[in-house]
Amino acid sequence: YGAPGVEFMGLHEENNTVMQIHFIPDQCQLVTLLDDNSLHLWSLKQHSGTSELREENRFTLKGPPGSPPSATQITAVLPHSSREVLYLGTESGNIFVVELPSFRVLEDRTITSEAVLQRVPEDYCNRRSCELVEALQEHPKNPDQILIGYSRGLIVLWDLQNNKATHHFLGNQQLENLYWQRDGSKFISCHYDGSYTQWPVSSDNRQPEPLENLVPYGQWLPMTWRLSKRLSHHIKMYHFLFKALLRIFVGCSSDFILDAASLDVLTPYIGKCCKFSLGELKLKLDSFPSIPVLVMELNDEDAEHVVDHAEADLLQDQEGYRWKGHEKLKTRDGPVRFEAGFQPFVLVQCQPPAVVTSLALHSEWKLVAFGTSHGFGLFDHQQKRLVFVKCTLHPSDQLALEGPLSRVKSLKKSLRQSFRRIRRSRVSSRKRRGGSGNASEVQEANAKFDQDALQEMELAPVQRKIEARSAEDSFTGFVRTLYFADTFLRDSSRHCPSLWAGTNGGTVYAFCLRVPPAERRMDEPVRAEQAKEIQLMHRAPVVGILVLDGRGTPLPEPLEVAHDLSKSPDMQGSHQLLVVSEEQFKVFTLPKVSSKLKLKLTALEGCRVRKVTVANFGSCKTDDYSENDLAVLTNLGDIQIISLPFLKLQIRYPCIRKEDVSGIASCVFTKYGQGFYLISPSEFERFSLSTKWLVEPRCVVD
Question: Region (Disordered): which ranges (predicted)?
């Protein structure tokens, strides 16, 4: 499991929430626990050439007559490595043992809370009871020992052979979960207040180890955290992942910067290549969107090298602009050791240090383009030098220079002022009409007006026709898309490398590039010269740029052509430029850039393009036929298929609810007509637009 395209699905007959899933070791089986306290055993079985997840058995743990439901309410499940039994912890503190696959209860092997408390110090027993079983973990080296964790903080190492406790660990905080260190010499307990503690098992000392010893340098272990009470979340799981590549080479101080999207998930990580001073660490939760451009290369061996860094000043030729946001990140000097895999070798930081809004990489030319709300630039990652920068700011784009926190304040202020103006105009019009009324009527009328105004604001995008936008609108210089193409930009006889950029204000920039041949690639610089600038009349944001070859086919990925994975483009016939804005599709001839045809998407419906990609649709009946079309997602949640190069609407599917803004924003397409979008912060939906590539999983496990 884990390979692309390998998936299995099982559906419970009961319409209940799945609370827990546990694999049975080495059996192609798993057990699920539902919120109705039922257990279900699933197996992967082959049927008609594919493997299916089938329910083999189900079971509900029952107590003696007259016992309360809590006596058998399952709270923890441990599939034993023997593959013969399950250990079931309950709210009563008792642990029941059931046989697999029959789910027969082995009553003589029940571990009662009374038996566990026999050797616990009296003062601890008086202060606390066992309460419910919160965690069960098998010893990684000794299958005859299991770790039992109770909610009040008591942890017991239990000998299954002799049916007795060998160690007691007396915790002070409410327990959430337990995890063994791989050699079994220590385990970690995590608690409701956001803390976790490491306990040694081999010695007689049952006290937690000092926090400074928790994270030896060079090991994949999380640090000890105690979140402030204001942000105190209980820790349910550990994620031994190295996510924050930025901290490989960014200097870390006592202010530890989190990359969490919200306060619901505060998951700091540490990797082999960073050594932090442990102790009290302050969590800095300021908005910090300054993410530099990282260029990484794949290396199958560990390596140690210096990460080069460069700066791209997007405002270098502009006067009168002043950045009011945060400062750029400080880079770390000296060599850094990296594990095998993708290893950063160069970092590009933009000035002002705003969010990178678009990226494009051409691996054959060794070039990377990047854009922000202030402009865009081109970087030669082979020579490690900046080729050029282009500022796209309009004189009215002051909001783009204020930084994220100031921007929120400005938007709130703007909304308040708008409502005040509308109220004043309503009052003045009432006076002109000579109308009068008591205070309650006025208050009721104002409340109704506010509600109507909000409804109008919500409905406006759907009802709005295409209309030209003002150049004074904020964020017109925001770079939405970047695109590399080898095409005819100067004349129709010679093609050359080019870079295209589209902005929020409906402007398209085109630059001719001169990339030296391979034998002189390191000796001569890459040169760039602006060749074209197109301004769309309606000034809608440009969300996609595409060049079609002489056959009307989108230019293939250069890397795929180099490895014979795609056909080479037709460089004999005339090329065409497709510019996709939020509101229409427009085809231009190249190199003259004269308008050829267009498709207006908005019209009376008011739908706007949110995502667009080229998708290859193959025939489900023959391998000899396929066609390239545009897959378009709109703000209404519809997906439209539009033919190339003639821009004919082929079909339209309702896909995502138009109210599901986050689902629409998260949607991505694959190159063969499938897609994914989030239906919650932790779930995604998969769909297919192609009859050849269905979402039905057809996989086999031997």
Answer: 423-445
Please answer whether residues 193 and 174 qualify as being in contact, where contact means their C-beta atoms are separated by less than 8 angstroms: yes
Vertex 255, ends 252 and 260: CA angle to 5°? 95
Mean pLDDT of the 382-390 span: 96
Report the run of H or E that residue 344 belongs to, with start and end.
strand 341-351
Q: Out of 58-62, 122-126, 621-625, which region has the weakest mean confidence (pLDDT)?
A: 122-126
- Backbone φ, ψ for residue 532 (5° rounding): -140, 155
Q: Which domain holds residue 657?
A: 609-701
Phi, psi (5° rounding) for residue 418?
A: -60, -45
| Residue finishing a domain among 395, 410, 432 | 395
Report the DSSP beta bridge partners of residue 510. 500, 532
Phi first, then psi, for residue 613 (nearest 5°) are -155, 160
| Number of domains comprising the chain | 3
The domain boundary residue, chosen from 197, 214, 231: 214
pLDDT at 256: 31
What's the start-to-end Cα distance of the chain, in Å? 11
The residue behind tokens 């299991």 is 146
Long-range contacts for 586-592 (Cβ within 8 Å, ≥24 apart)?
Answer: 586/536, 587/548, 587/645, 587/647, 588/534, 590/487, 590/488, 590/489, 590/492, 590/547, 591/488, 591/489, 591/490, 591/491, 591/492
What pLDDT, on a 0 to 100 scale, did the predictor assign at position 291? 66
Mean pLDDT value across the chain: 79
**Residues 635, 638, 644: CA angle, nearest 5 degrees:** 105
Reported pTM = 0.61
More confident site: 303 or 467: 303
Q: How far apart are CA 580 and CA 577, in angstroms?
A: 10
Q: Are residues 91 and 208 in the same domain?
A: yes
Mean pLDDT of 206-213: 47
**By three-state DSSP, how is residue 216 classified?**
coil
Tokens representing 299 are: 């290396």
Q: What are the C-alpha distances in Å from 39 to residues 55, 66, 99, 138, 210?
A: 11, 22, 12, 20, 40
pLDDT band at 594 (very low <50, low <70, confident <90, very high): very high
Cα 477 vs. chain centroid, distance in angstroms? 26
Question: What pLDDT does 398 receive?
Answer: 61
Place of tokens 């694959």: 670
Q: Of 528, 507, 505, 508, whose CA–CA distance to 516 is shortest?
A: 528
